[in-house]
Design goal:
Helix content is 39%, strand content 32%. By secondary structure, the chain is α+β, with helices and mostly antiparallel strands.
Length: 165
């Protein structure tokens, strides 16, 4: 009899623990987000591709928290080079100061947001309008909402040549 009571107690404790864990998981996963913030983040992404396409360095930099943010191709770090991630100057040189024109499109955009912090994960295609070459990859943007405006606080990306048709 005593072993049955003990077994019943263990089963009740296990069930209670599972219920409490499910409630905790639901609470922890409940990010505070709203449609206006998602729309503002989507507008930032549209401004990103527009400014790259127009070669508008000032408009692009207005999207950044600062010009000194982590901004890097993932391979620059993973290949054993110096682990410097503040590589925006190289991006700026290639995209805005090279004299070339680019068109960039975003695909499979996924936005996660909780209050004033957001993460955007997306696939991209960048076409060099000067010579017709293209590249593609994946990028992750970390955004912060500062004084009511979403800003890019970090960007990391992969990239490789798009196979020719």
């Amino acid at each position: 009899m005593r072993s049955r009571l003990w077994l019943a107690l263990v089963v009740c404790l296990a069930a209670g623990t599972a219920y409490a864990q499910a409630n905790l998981d639901a609470t922890v996963a409940a990010h505070r987000t709203d449609a206006a913030d998602i729309a503002a983040i989507q507008a930032l992404l549209a401004a990103y591709t527009t400014s790259v396409g127009a070669g508008d360095e000032a408009a692009f930099e207005a999207l950044l928290l600062s010009r000194d943010i982590p901004f890097s191709h993932s391979g620059a770090v993973s290949r054993g080079q110096a682990p410097e991630t503040r590589n925006y100057p190289q991006f700026r040189q290639a995209i805005f100061a090279s004299g070339k024109r680019y068109a960039q499109t975003f695909h499979n955009v996924r936005i996660s947001q909780d209050e004033d912090l957001a993460e955007v994960s997306l696939d991209f295609v960048t076409r060099d309008l000067t010579d017709g070459t293209a590249g593609y990859g994946w990028k992750v943007l970390h955004l912060l909402k500062v004084k009511g405006q979403w800003k890019i606080a970090a960007e990391f990306y992969t990239g490789r040549a798009l196979p020719k048709d």
